[in-house]
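Sequence only, no structure available. Ideas?
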Amino acid sequence: MKTSTFLAAALATLACGSAQADGATLYAEKTCLACHGKDGKKTLLPDYPKIAGQNAKYAERQMLDIKNGVRTNGNSAAMKGIMHLVSDQEIKELAVFLSKLK
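Reply:
I predicted one. Tokens follow.
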């Protein structure tokens, strides 16, 4: 029983670590850094949001709302063109990655 508990904890730790790595890779691959900066702090235009350290649930909700057409204000039109290329799971990974940026 102890071995299975240890194994489950180890797998969960690995999953969190790989999600973080996947989030960083996705941030680059999905071209987030083009508008939000490589560190999430230096944006292409002054009215683009700085997203480093953003609450994961909030970031996920915003990305999903833009993807699904629920959010249409601000600069969401620019994001809409990209978000159809990002799966819901990738959005979740991106949100976790962003929340951990300093």
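Residues 2-100 form a domain with the Cytochrome Bc1 Complex; Chain D, domain 2 fold (CATH 1.10.760.10).
Hope that gets you unstuck.
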